[in-house]
Amino acid sequence: MDPTFEPIIKVEDYTFYYPDSQVPALAGINLTVRPGEFLGLTGPTGAGKTTLALALNGIIPHFQGGRLAGRVTIAGLDTAATPCARLAGVIGSVFQDPEAQLVAETVEDELAFGLENLAVPREEMRARISAALEMVGITDLRHRPLRQLSGGQKQKVAIAAAIALRPRILVLDEPTSELDPRGSLEIVNLLERLNRDYGMTILLIEQKISLLAPRVPRLVCLHQSRIVADAAPRQVLGQEKLVAELGLEVPPVTDLFRLLSRAGVYHGNLPLAVDQGRRELDRLLSHESP
Ligand SMILES: Nc1ncnc2c1ncn2[C@@H]1O[C@H](COP(=O)(O)OP(=O)(O)OP(=O)(O)O)[C@@H](O)[C@H]1O
Ligand SMILES: [Mg+2]
Questions:
Q1: Are 138 and 144 in contact (CB under 8 A)?
Q2: DSSP, res 204
Q3: Is 42 in the pocket of ligand 1 (CB under 6 A)?
Q4: Are 160 and 135 in contact (CB under 8 A)?
Q5: Which of 253, 254, 227 is nearest to 240 (CA)?
Q6: What is the tens place of the pLDDT at every residue in 24-33?
Q7: pLDDT, average across residues 60-77
Q8: What is residue 97's predicted lDDT score, i.e. its pLDDT?
Q9: Mean of the pLDDT values across residues 144-165?
Q10: Residue whose CA is at the smallest distance from ligand 1 atom 4
Q11: Cα(51) to centroid of ligand 1, in Å?
Q12: What positions does the domain ABC transporter occupy (predicted)?
């Protein structure tokens, strides 16, 4: 990564209390993200993941009050001093609960809504809507009323609506919680493509580490309002105490190789996906055979 790049997300000594709460939901957060990074954010329930997403897209402090200290800067804009509408042109959000996010009658109207707010011309709007629906694989839902869709389909609509705006940063809060394994994989593959082909900076909040770990170069863990790890997934998942304390769902193949490693049988990098594990196993067995 080019160290001369200005950070696209900068969180400095950020602490936030919800109204009437004596316990901070975020405490002393420092996080720097460079343009084009693909970042995973995980941690147990109540750790503060959603709160951090709200601090990034400006909902905190513009729509969600509370006490805060520190600063969040997005593409050079101080979020506390920049209206949400302006931030929305830079940072797209997919919320944990798609119900709370979707406002229109039909899928097409939902995608058009955000584009109208950004004053995108009609012709371009139509093209962007088609492209976003196609990317997420829901072209067939274009004219369907939102209220008829399943939870997973609504999640896909929310993702398509965010992508249609072509933000420089995309923050997704557990976007696969209502999707089946195949649908979840499709979404994560799509995010990988958006990151690789368009250089979109992506922050993916996800509890399913098996989905996250093989893909993101950097994994941040929140626990009790603080960042307790910020490193490559292999390094994070190699920390047994941390994994146990946070109850992180380590991919079974990683766990298996951790056992082999502890038994002194394996000395390489911990595999994060089954295909990596298979390669390591082949290597291990070929060394052992005479
Ligand atoms: N609107 C609110 N008012 C008061 N407290 C809140 C509010 N929203 C969240 N909290 C509290 O802030 C803390 C962090 O919550 P947050 O929703 O950010 O966690 P999370 O990591 O996203 O959890 P989950 O994995 O369950 O989505 C929790 O203790 C929660 O109870
Ligand atoms: Mg949450």
A1: no
A2: E
A3: no
A4: yes
A5: 254
A6: 999 999 999 9
A7: 96
A8: 86
A9: 94
A10: 18
A11: 6
A12: 9-249
